[in-house]
Each structure stands twice: as C-alpha cells, then as structure tokens.
Write a structure and sequence with these properties.
Length: 192
Amino acid sequence: MRGVVFLDRDGTLIEDSGYLRDPAAVRILPGAAEALRLLSREGFLLAVVSNQAGLAKGIFTGAEMEAVHRRFVAAFGEEGVVFDAVEYCPHHPEAAVEAYRRTCECRKPGTGLADEILLRLRVPDSCPRFVVGDKMSDVSMGIRLGASTVLVGTGYGNAEKVSGERAGIAPEIFLPGMREAAGWIVAHRIGS
C-alpha cells in the first residue's frame, strides 16, 4: 500500500447533475476511470467519501440512492476500477426528513467517514493520505486528516477555488481533473 486516496463522487468522478436519483444518469467524467486504474496499479487504496444530502432533503429515497450507488460502482467496475471503500453521509442539519436531521462528523468537511475507512482498512498512521474533490469541503476534510489535498476544476472546482481563496482555505494544488490529479499523486509519492 503506497497510500490512500479519498475521492469525492459528484463533480470529481462523475458528472454533477444536481441531486442524482436516476441510475441511468451516472456519467463517468473523461479521464476518471483511467486515473483510478493508474492509482490502483501504483498501489493506492481508493475510497469514495460523498455527502448525499438529497436523502435528508427528501429529494430522493433510500432506494433511489442505493440504485445510483450500485450503478456508480458497476460503471467503474466495467472500466476495471474496484473501490476499496465507498461511503456516503445522508445527513443535513436542516433536513426535511427528520430521521436525517443532524449535525454529524460524517458530513464533509467532517472526517467521520474517512476515519471509519482508515480503521476498517487498517491503514497505518504513517501511510500517506490524499484527498481529491471539487469542493472546499473536500479540501477542508483533507486538511483535518493531515492529507495532501487536490482541488479539481471539474464540477464546482473553478468556482470553489475562488471562494476558498476568499475564505483563506487553499488546496495543496489545483488541477484540471482526475487524470492530472492521479499523475500528481503518483509523482508526489515518488518524489517524497
């Protein structure tokens, strides 16, 4: 194991089409599958951590979320990518669905899901960690984890870069997409 890469889903690996409830709408972003195959070949664990507040907001049902999840995993599987972990936070502090209304540590920028994955996969403290996403919540989670952070320009990335700069939050590097992020991660590990 050369490291663990925590990945956002919507806008980073697949097109962000708002609150995704239709499995047929899952579209892998150009270069994403190729990037993940590279990371996997190089010995990195791949862990998806995603906020899915659409469940809390009543926009989609648990069954719809699970159907999208299965299609997401299957779509990457068809491209030769196997994830070591895929976790979602369904909570939101202002949820319409009371069962999901809470402030939690699993919702990014919280590190709850990432911490659970690290324990479950028995990742040693000395193992390098990387976080790749298109939002500053991904970057903030990475900073809290002590990870190297990559903000990608896909999804909300370009707009988030500007808002993050205004708020004084910055990723370690800003790159156009997953292909470049994977190349940077591999080179970063070789150079360290």
